[in-house]
Amino acid sequence: xxxxxxxxxxxxxxxxxxxxxxxxxxxxxxxxxxxxxxxxxxxxxxxxxxxxxxxxxxxxxxxxxxxxxxxxxxxxxxxxxxxxxxxxxxxxxxxxxxxxxxxxxxxxxxxxxxxxxxxxxxxxxxxxxxxxxxxxxxxxxxxxxxxxxxxxxxxxxxxxxxxxxxxxxxxxxxxxxxxxxxxxxxxxxxxxxxxxxxxxxxxxxxxxxxxxxxxxxxxxxxxxxxxxxxxxxxxxxxxxxxxxxxxxxxxxxxxxxxxxxxxxxxxxxxxxxxxxxxxxxxxxxxxxxxxxxxxxxxxxxxxxxxxxxxxxxxxxxxxxxxxxxxxxxxxxxxxxxxxxxxxxxxxxxxxxxxxxxxxxxxxxxxxxxxxxxxxxxxxxxxxxxxxxxxxxxxxxxxxxxxxxxxxxxxxxxxxxxxxxxxxxxxxxxxxxxxxxxxxxxxxxxxxxxxxxxxxxxxxxxxxxxxxxxxxxxxxxxxxxxxxxxxxxxxxxxxxxxxxxxxxxxxxxxxxxxxxxxxxxxxxxxxxxxxxxxxxxxxxxxxxxxxxxxxxxxxxxxxxxxxxxxxxxxxxxxxxxxxxxxxxxxxxxxxxxxxxxxxxxxxxxxxxxxxxxxxxxxxxxxxxxxxxxxxxxxxxxxxxxxxxxxxxxxxxxxxxxxxxxxxxxxxxxxx
Length: 670
Prior knowledge:
The chain has 670 residues and is an alpha+beta fold. The radius of gyration is 25 Å and the shape is globular.
């Protein structure tokens, strides 16, 4: 298996190089010398994770690459120059407004490229050609040792026709003026005296429960990539300018008014606190007061519109992480008390419209973006410490609704089963949150929602899906709106509240610069969702539905699998499934739990009536759900399932299928 992995990753890097031979011409950006330049420092390892972005824009957890977690928005007429060291390569996946790929160029240290016309956003991956496999541990030491610098300069033309100033200069002036004289705030950090009671909303003295929150709200919107934007390391100052470094303008009352007008009554405000901190003479961390004041100002914008606000800790992995030693985790716990103690004290007089969310996607640093028992136990400890810290500050925090996540905000059975609801001094004041960017556009999403329903009942707490949405590069594109509408409708029917992740780029609903809609149809799908049900679906859950064997990855023919363990769907006596005529897409859903939780679909091979291979999807990491195009002349399809982390014996597959731990649902649609 190790030999195969080595060949696979060497081949992947070779293919990556070949893919870039016909991409935009590399130049030195002379044409943009007189324009505005922004510097993006990517030297902080917390910005990255194991994996790379594919041409489609989808994330793939390839251990030979690392990739920046965020997506960058493009300006017109722009050029990029990179700094990555002589042995590294930065790969850029560039997309147009509709999410279509405009190329995947790679740059070496000091090289530049002009973004192609129509560029809307890009994602960044990086690798070292001499490391065919970085692995899930030690990659920070390899890629970030000795203070290596990773960055890029983004040069673009953005004049303001009215006064000759750039958009960012105008925004900065507007923002600075607002900070000097903040509106709708009071000296004791509460807006309750200024808040208008229209007779339909709760008064500031009303106490609501977590269950009430679900009953009183409808749908939410994330203010992503604004107050959570960051780069570099904290230096004790406010670093207020970081709010715009990921491409979004300064947040204004007008923006929040526009969000409210669309029909949203929940706003989640992701905030990075660590990057605006300093340390005192005792080495204790503290948040800069100017940054707290800016966050307060944005919170007040939402208060002025009678919205429910979820205030979280985002991108704070340098101080909030799990899967570590007892010594390191003691430091984490100290930071939880210091940071959340300061936040809670600052906002303690705000009324029930303000909800605190403890952490966002806390990573397992021992094995990035993967489950482990130790990480899950430490996550439970962090959540309990958060609740205790907030409650200890008193005032309205004594009964405030709090929201806590599973490890990584994960939603599969391993993450859910390990979660423990924190104990509390008041009843029904805790919401539980997960993140789920579901790709299913029909009833295939129901197994996930049903598992969440069971989970909610088992922990006796309501569920908020804090991040969800449909990527601009969603495939098939004609079902993107259906995907969003179906998910929001079905989640609401289960009693969950969904909050769309709007990062201003590939998940953008609202253009924050012009205050108009990216796609009115998509917005309507979120605000007024409807379920979609596909006919003619079939679920295979018996061992008699499968054949224990694997696929020859070149020919697609079945063969014995003596060493690893793969099962093939077998519904026509040829270890395959017949494909109905005149169908355009095939949907696949692998539902797994318990011992089968690591099983994935890896092979989807299509053949014509005489056995010729006419198309295939071959995934090294595997997937649980996907919609694939049906090639012309397809007569049957071969689907293979296995666990890419460990071998599975035939007796184990029999046991998992008999126990209902694994099933495969397939449908075809025109």
